[in-house]
Amino acid sequence: MKFLSILERAKVFAEEAGRKALEMQKHLESIRFKNPKDVVTSADLESERIIIFHLQEEFPDHSIRTEEAGHVKDGSRYEWIIDPVDGTVNFSRGIPLWGVSIALVENTENGAVPIVAAISLPGLGKIYTASKNGGAFVNGERIHVSETADLSKAIVSNGDFNVGNWEKINAQNLKNFQREAENCTRVKCYGSAVIEGTFTAQGSLDAFVMTMSYPWDIAGIALIVTEAGGKATEISGDPIRFVDGEQVLFSNGILHDQMVQILK
Questions:
Q1: Which end of the chain, N or C, is surrounded by fewer C-beta atoms within 10 Å?
Q2: Burial class (CB in 10 A: 0-12, 13-18, 19+), 130
Q3: What pTM was estimated for this model as a whole?
Q4: Where do transmembrane segments lie in this chain (predicted)?
Q5: Range(s) of the domain holding residue 247
Q6: Do β-strands 38-41 and 31-35 pair in parallel, antiparallel, or remain unpaired?
Q7: Rounded average pLDDT over 129-134
Q8: CATH number at residue 18
Q9: At which of 105, 121, 142 does a domain end?
Q10: CA separation for the pair 85, 66 (Å, rounded)
Q11: pLDDT greater at residue 59 or residue 73
């Protein structure tokens, strides 16, 4: 496949959907709880509609899975994984830490492999892109993970409390935060995987831990982080499988094994 030409189209779609969501953020018509701990807005649905329309028009043979609509189409070796607004709670409160994630994965005998990613952060005016073996970029400029080698000097981020199966996840988060706080300089919690993943890729964070993830949360950032020179695995150190409910770790690579150890 011609990754760069496909990436350019994904970038265009992410930017268009992001602009629309940013416009709608000023006057949201609908905010509803889709479960006791998570919300969906009219902007999520409109962003999703825009992306699905373009993908179906330009890549009719590809599968599509999104956070809100689920499996729109199945059966292809190539599958688009979409999060129309990642960080919807932030978005619904006017916090600019949210984004639109579009990733293309190849389904192989060894599992799903991200090959193209475009993440738009409209509130920050940034677009992150990556293609397999092609490097990672923000607004066209190449990015690289940090060179922090001393865990005690690391700044890390951890996923939100009160999501999904909250009793189990919050208990795990408490343990994660305690271990990270004991071993690192600072522990952050930005409330959006695309923010924390891209910040890790550009070296602003040294690591990011997510206790409960879904493919749409991490497919894009997994490619961007690794193409920026970092590492992405389950918190056990095993390869990411891109299945529902995974616990995942993203880092600059240098600190990865140390992070795995403190999270055991």
A1: C
A2: buried
A3: 0.95
A4: none
A5: 151-263
A6: antiparallel
A7: 97
A8: 3.30.540.10
A9: 142
A10: 10
A11: 59
